[in-house]
Amino acid sequence: MDGHPIPSSFLTESLELELETEWCRPPCFSCASDGRKHFSPDSHLASGSLKRLMLSLDPLPTNFEEDIVELFDFQWVTEIALVNSSRDLFSLCRQQIYKLETLLQTTGDLGQASALHSEANNIRHRCVMFLHYVKVFIFRYLRIHETENDVPLHPYEVLEAQLPSVLVEELHGLILYTGRLSDHPSVTPGAFIVQNQIKLFPPSWHLIHLRLDIHWLVLEILHILGEKASKQVVYSHQLMNMAGENLTSVSLFTEHCENLLCDLISLSVSRYAKVRPSEAVTSHHCPCLCIKELWVLLIQLLDHRSKGCHTEPFWRWMNKLLKDLFKKPNDTERPSIPVVPSKDPLGFSWWIITHLASFYQFDRNGVLDEKKQMNSNWNFVEELLKKSTNVQDGILEEQVRMYIHCCLTLCGFWNPNIQIVTILWDYYSKNLNSSFTIPWLGLQEFATISKSTLSMLEIVKTCCSDEQSHDLYKSNSSYNIFLCVLAKVMKKAIATNEIHPWNQIKGRIYSKFHQKRMEELTEVGLHNFFKLFLVLAAVAKLEDVVSRVLDLLDFLRPGSVTPSQRALVWKGQMAFLLMYIQRNLDVGILAQTLSGAFREKAKEFLVSKNELGQKHNLWMLLSIYMDGVQEVFEMSRDLKLSEEILLNDGFSMLLPACREAQLGTVLSFLQAVLARVRSVYQQSCKELPGENSGLSVPASSVAKEHHLAAIAQALWRNFFPFLKSQRMSQTVPIPQLADTAAGFTCLALDMPRTAPSDLQPQPVISMMQLFGWDDMIWPQLVSRYLSHLIQNKTLSETLSHSGCTSFQALTVRSWIRCVLQMHMKDLSEPNGILVGIDAEQTVEKEYMEQLAELTRLLFQLPEVKNILSKAQVEHLAITQDPPKALVLFLETVGITYSSLQTLPEKSAMVTKALEYLGEVLKYVKPYLGKKSSNAGLQLTYKIMGVLVKSWALILATSKAQKLLFRIIDCLLLPHAVLQQEKDLPTAMLTAIRKSLPLYLQGMCVICCHSQTQNAYLNQLLGNIVEQYIGRFLPASPSLQALAQHPVLLGLNKSATMPKTASLQKTVVQVIRKSYIHFKGTSPPPRLASILAFILELFKKTNMDIGDMKELLPSVLKCLLLVNEPQVKRLATENLDHIVKACQAGSGGEPATQLTSVFRQFVQDYSMIYEQQVYNILEKVAELDQQIVTGLISTLTQCLKDSELKQGLGRNIAQREAYGRLLSLLGQPGQEERLKLENENT
């Protein structure tokens, strides 16, 4: 055992670790990975076989330890078998290979698959076991004999001395017998793929993997043999190589290694033919896991040997073979080793080098280590780059894109290399005006110009990202990928503290730009220019790059720059500005340049009148500026980097020149800036030490406060004057105007000292007066504005402490106006366009939602909540429907007032209530004009009606009567109503019909409780009743129509209005005087309808006898003087109702209260209309005999007076009629009749 190497002490630990592994079977190639590791546990890598080989450890420490070893089903002596029977053993190995090959020709059904798999697996196992035995034998038992030793040797020693040479020959023969991987038709990519996971593989699978085992184990054996021979060359005594030289262990290793690499390259070439350029980085070149493992094994072994044996490392082997692919058929130098030619050797070289470079991430155990230091191959890659960017060869963008993508991947693996950046920049500097598009990729390829500043920065972010997208090929041009390469190289160089690379790259790039070159740049070229310098700024010195860019942009002549190019220049400059913000650098110098250009363009925009093309181009630049400035404010952390310079007086020139859509854009920008300034201010307030902390304010905080104040002043100075001038305009988008005004109000709340002098000393109250409490402002603006501010608790507290006690009352007043004027926009519609449309549909949905939100917030005000609680209104009863909520509020105020006890409380409440209303009639006055709104009129009359009814006790006071009189004059008794011959508009009549009961009931209460001007109030009530009884009286009597008469509805008793006696009396008086009064014998118009109305009046009310007595004469006249059947019927019904009502009022006794009325009726008409009077009294007698009985004396006297007046003696006909009446009166009638008869005789 003298030939055994003595392991060094530093290997002891590794050996012990290896011995802990359970060596169940020798390692071999296998595609069946468990999915948890990159390679199969039985592989040469995962099993630790390669590691043991490189550490010169026993290949299989736990195998072949018995005295007898079984090889090819024969038993051999372990320590001498290879010396004594080496050629026999290799012959048996070849026989086994042949046997496996014959199994390929066996065709069997599925049932034989298991048997074939088992037999093929056993054959492979025997061959692999034998080759591992050769490795172990060389390591453990082989002794190398000195050739110059003349000492006679034992025959075994003679054979042992010849064994190395024999092994070289036998291994050479085994290689030849096995053949190259590319020589067999079964070696196709499909043969390597595991088609199923049931572990039953066909013989072809076992054969190809056995060949892989043999090719690799031969290299292992030759390496161990070389190590055993102390790196001496072992010569073959019988064979020569293809060059005619003696075959040696070294030449055999080299030749076999080259053949194996060629075969692997050939396999990769066949796969590359199916790879698209867009999939080059993601499509691997290994057909199976075993091929991948073989590549890793070769990389590890060749690089390991290059360190100890001074042989070539892996990359040199590959470079030599790949260079052969570029040789043409007519080249004098033909490759010594044949490689399957590729149609695209350049693309293939990039592809395979990129993927092979990734294999360097695997260690000797097959474990992936992404942080592992990798050997680079930059020299060959630089040659590839020069070929790839050779314009004379006519390389297409789709190819260049793939090459640069591969180069970028290599930059991620290897150390930074400045030369590749130089080579690429030489190519792209000549083609800056190219768009680098691939037509077949679709429309996305043509969007080469960034649409915004952020999109430019997004490109830079993508280029500088450490993690590149798998879709980089399709989503980025080759130029963008070059920028990724540039960024990655720079970042890696800076990470290694190298300064010279930046100076080198800066010099190469800057030198390509001069005045002529800048003037030659198209829009695409300018875009590529900015992308380049933005990437440089992102990874290098920002100030240096920006200074150079500004100098280069000065080379552009203004007259030759197109609008699109100018827009691109602004975007690029804004992108640099954002980079300053990202790095927390002061933007003063760059901001001065940009804001100055903005001021000039805003001035041009203002003075250019109808030049649409010029305005469009100018607006494009102005929009870019605003977008960029907005991003600056949103990105800046503390707003202390001189951002106020960007808000110059250019905006004061821009705003008046904007149209509505453009104005919306500017206001949106302004809102964003206001919100950001307030947010930063509030955050800075939280960071400041408290007043009582005793700590001094840091200088940074003072600087921040100074900059914030400067920004706020710039906003007030350059934006607010225009905003203030547009309060009553309809050209400005109202929602945005309201939002912006609210933003300024909150700014005044946070930073009051920055507000202009015309708003001082209380800028918040001034702002509220301008935009929230002014009755001239559009309600849409007011509602949205107040919605923002009501919920601001800080604002409420500030206004309360400032002495503005009417803050909540004024807000309620504005809300009432917003509700009442919710249909104001209807007035701008053409007449008739809104007929038949639901009232809610005539209000813009957005405004209704805003008004509902304001309503919800208003009911949260402390003052309103206090009123609700005093009125005991539950929270659930509160509605967000604005009109209903207003009705509820008015009713609640009335209830609250009625519950007050003391006079001071009531007086204060009246004052507050009137403050809530303000000039309420001015709010609704537009509805009352010639161009009215149906919905607006109905809302007005309803709300005012609720007001009169609910606030009756308030309106009864002297303070509020003036308002009451104005309501009646404007709504119920305007001049048009007093003109009886003139018809009122249908919409107004409809509105009055629906709401009149509310007014009547309210006036009834007012008349009862008012202590001043009582007579005038009653007169007003009478005038209202007089006007509207007739206006709503149907032409012909209709019970259904009369039942809905508003005056009758006003007489209905309810829980809220129990007393209507005064109204009832007024109605009776008006009817008697104006509607049922006869002019001589001529009846009044619509007599039947008024009689029907009176009849309904009797039914709906409990009329007292006095009122009935007033109506009775007129009813009797109708029976007497009118012959129309309908009138007689209705008059009879009224008479019947009066008599019965009087009887009921007397507790069932005779209605003698009416006797005087009937007596007067008899005295007035019996001498002329004696027959009609008797007929009427007959009807009365049927109802109440006592009434007529009481009239006997009067009737008799009238009879005698009539006869006397006529002078004709007794009137027989009249006496007979009178007798018939008396016959109906019982005993008194009989007695009077007998008395008259006795007088006759």
Automatic annotation (TrEMBL):
Q: Which residue ranges run through the membrane?
A: none
Specify the Protein MMS22-like N-terminal domain's residue ranges.
26-729
Q: What is its main location?
A: nucleus
MMS22-like C-terminal domain ranges (all copies) = 849-1225
SUPFAM superfamilies assigned: ARM repeat (SSF48371)
Pfam families from the entry? MMS22L_C, MMS22L_N
Give its localization: Chromosome; Nucleus
Q: Which UniProt keywords apply?
A: Chromatin regulator, Chromosome, DNA damage, DNA repair, Nucleus
UniProt cross-references to InterPro entries, sorted A to Z: ARM-type_fold, MMS22-like, MMS22L_C, MMS22L_N
Protein's GO biological process: chromatin organization; double-strand break repair via homologous recombination; protein localization to chromatin; replication fork processing
Q: What does this protein do?
A: Component of the MMS22L-TONSL complex, a complex that promotes homologous recombination-mediated repair of double-strand breaks (DSBs) at stalled or collapsed replication forks. The MMS22L-TONSL complex is required to maintain genome integrity during DNA replication. It mediates the assembly of RAD51 filaments on single-stranded DNA (ssDNA): the MMS22L-TONSL complex is recruited to DSBs following histone replacement by histone chaperones and eviction of the replication protein A complex (RPA/RP-A) from DSBs.
For this chain, the family text in UniProt reads: Belongs to the MMS22 family. MMS22L subfamily.
Q: What is this protein called?
A: Protein MMS22-like
Identify the gene encoding this protein.
MMS22L
